[in-house]
Each structure stands twice: as structure tokens, then as C-alpha cells.
Protein 1
Amino acid sequence: LYSCTDMIEKPKEEKDFYSLYSILGRCVLPPEIFKILDNTPPGTAGEIQLTDAMKELAKRDGMIAVDFYGKRYDMGNKLGILKANIELALEHEELKEGLKEYLKDTVCLLYTSDAADEEDSVDLGGRSIIKKK
């Protein structure tokens, strides 16, 4: 456990970093956070940032942080969201087989459309595709 007294939303320069820790977006907050949010001016990208309200709460009352052990997905960009959805769907009993088939078909299309005259091939679960060089 760590005592947290400050944080910053999307630091822009190296000088903005105070530590090597990050906020992963899973927080248990007291009801007082809503009063703070009501008085929080727009921050990054002209939006009211929860991090700014959490910073105020941390300075006023203190906050506790914990180490996270596991895989982190960057939900701040479209590719990160896609990667998270695909990886988690591949673990889901109802989705994984259908998704595997879709991904295999998609990979086959990607390789064969660009490299139809190459000699090397790759076997993807019974599908023979041409290796892109």
C-alpha cells in the first residue's frame, strides 16, 4: 500500500512526472468525490477529468494506492481497446471458437491478397496461406 497525495492527468512532458506509477482506472472512491467533481473545472481536452477531482481528494484527505499485478490494457486509444477486447474474447467460452475462425480467415485474406505469387506458405489450423515477405 502507498500513500497518494498527488496525481496528474495525461502528463505532457517528462518534467510533469513525479513517479513511475500510473492510475489504471479502477478506483474505490468516497461519495465526496461528486461534490469535488461539481466544482472541478474542465482540464485536459476541455473535459472534466476524474483524475483532477481525485487529485483534490488526495491533497485534502489522502488516498491509498496499491500495486497492480496483471496485464494492463491502454484504454486511452482505439488500438488498446481492440487488443483488450480480442484477448479477453479469446478466453470467453461462448466467443473464443467463433473469434478464432474469424481471425484465421482475416489473416488468410491479409496474406493472400498481397502475396499471391510468393512460394513460402504457412499452415494456420488447416488453412494453407502464402507467407508475406
Protein 2
Amino acid sequence: EEEEERVVRKEEEEEEVVIVEEEEEEERVVRKEEEEEEVVIIVIIVRKEEERKKKKKELLERKKKRKRLLLLKKRRKKKELLERKKKRKRKKKKKELLERLLLLEEEEERVVRKEEEEEEIVIIVLERKKKRKRLSLLRKKKKKKELLERKKKKKELLERKKK
């Protein structure tokens, strides 16, 4: 009986050892699975973090690009505005110059017309002077002639009287 009891106890102990070993094995397997799950979870978390960082970086890049494009657009617009302003200024200046040129031409025309009128007046005055002079000369000649004639008549009269 004792032998039997020992054998039974031994078997029970062996069973317990087997059960403990199985439980330990099961625990190891469970722990390993949990570790693998943790690793998978960690990997997933890391990937998500990387994706998030990547998306964030892409967003930043897009934002920078948009900002740069806006800045370029602003500059271009500013440049175009400046060009238009310069063009308007040039056009205005050209118009003013043309107006000044026109005014100068008109003034020159007036001056030329005035000079021509003065020349005509001078010519008329000269012609009048010439006429007057001629008339005066004619009058002088006439007077002289008359004087000469009177002298002649006097002479003749004197001669007649002497005779």
C-alpha cells in the first residue's frame, strides 16, 4: 500500500510537474504572443507616427509652396502695376511734350505771322517814303522849273524893257 501510495504520489507529482510545465509553456506562449502583439502595436504606432509626420511635412511643404506662389503672384502684380504706372507716366509725359510742341509751333507761327506783317508794314512805309520822296523831288523840280521860268520871263521882260 505504501508502495502504491508512493507511486500514486509520484504520479501526482509528475502530473503536477507536467501541469506546471504546461502552464509555464502556456504562459510563455501567451507572453510571447503578447510581446508580438505589443511589437505589432508599436510598429503600427511608429508607422502612424511616421505617416503623421510625413503628412505634416507635406502640408508644410504645400503651405510653403502656396505662400511662395502667393508671394510671386504679389510681386508680379506689383511689377505689373508699376509697369502700368510707368506707361501712364510716359504717355502723360509724351502728351505734355506734344502739347508743348504744338504750343511752340503755334507761338512760332504767330511770331512768323507778326514778322511778316511787320515786314509788310515796313515795305508799305518804305513805299510811302519813296513816293513822298519822289513827289517831293517832283515838287522840287517843278518849283525849280517854275523858278527858272520866272527868271526867264523876268529876263525876257528886262530885255524887252531894255529894247
Protein 3
Amino acid sequence: ELQRDYKILLLGAGESGKSTVAKQMRIIHAIKGNAFSAQEVREYVPVIYANVLQSLCAVLEYMAGQGLRLRSKARGYAEEMAELYARGNCQLNPQLGEKITMVYK
């Protein structure tokens, strides 16, 4: 089978998803699951954790703007996560993962 390499120039404003498209292409076209090296995986983990908290905070901000409220228990968890994100502390652990799940339910 003939393999060809192509170069693609992705243009766009900052935070428009250029890197995301490139990473998705690597995943889609990976051979035997070798899309990312172990070093790359270690580097992406904090970014993914931060994205989880950032997305949750965006949903919570939208809800507040629409006058929507969480259940009382989930409200405390949401405030805790917003504080963590604001401080730049994006280390996820199983306990925080459970709290995120509770907020999304």
C-alpha cells in the first residue's frame, strides 16, 4: 500500500481549536493505538484536567445567568470546584471526580 504524507496549514484565532483538530487527526489515524508517546500523555493530562474544570465552570456560569440553581449538595461541590479552578489547582483525584459527577447529575 502506498502511503502519502500531506501537510495541512490550520489557520484561526487563538483558542479556536487548531491544536485540537491536529490531535484528533493523530488519534484517528494512529496505527495500533500509538497516537501519543508516554511523554505526550503525561504533558496532556494537566491540560485535560483543567479543561474539565473550565467546562464545568462555564456550565455553572451559564446556569447562574439563566437563574437556574443546583441541588443544595451539588451547589457546595460546584463552589469548591470553581475555587479550585480560579486558583489554578486543576489536579483531579477520585474524590473530586465523584463531586464533578454529582454536579452534572
Protein 4
Amino acid sequence: VFARALAISSYPQLDRRWARSTLFAMPHYPAEIEYSEKYSDATYEYRHVFLTKPAVKEVWKLTGGAQRTLAEAEWRGLGVEQSRGWVHYVVHRPEHHILLFRRPLGTDPMTGRAPQAPGV
């Protein structure tokens, strides 16, 4: 919040009402669950899932206020549809309507099994 307030005060030529409405905007709840493109680093592939408002309310009931990650049965119960192997790995508190998922690179999408490490 401080960084956003600093951003507003750094640009006095901005209309403050516009800046506040843009910088402090309410979350966008899609009409249907939306999925980001996948992206990866050297270890995992990632994706974000944007929940509908009713699904977010259900997450709050399941977790006592978005206090923990969801088990696979829980996020599938919300209507999230993905291939196997995805794990909800972190609660992103500023945007609790976005679920963050990851799985090891090379995971078989049919079985959800991650590739074995060499020598195992």
C-alpha cells in the first residue's frame, strides 16, 4: 500500500481520483474460471487460475479465510479443470481470487507422475 501511495504522490499531474481507482482497484472476478498460459523456470512449470466470486467464497469457507493451500480434491471441487500433477503451492494474499499452481517439469499430464531423478 505504501508503494502505491508513493506512486500517486510521485506524479502530481495525475488526477488523484483516477490514480486511486486504478491503483487500488477491486479484484476482477471472471464470469467463468480462467487459466493463464503456462510458464516455467529450470525446475517447475507454473500457471495461475482466476476464480469466480462464488468460488472465492467457497475457498474462504474451506480454508477459514484463505489461510492454507487447497488439496487437489478441493480445487477440483471448485470447478478447476487441469491435467494431473498440478499442486496449489502458495496462498497469494493480495489477490486471493488467484490460485497459483506448479508441477515439476516433465510431469506426465495423464498420470501426474513427475520424472525420476537420475540414479534413483
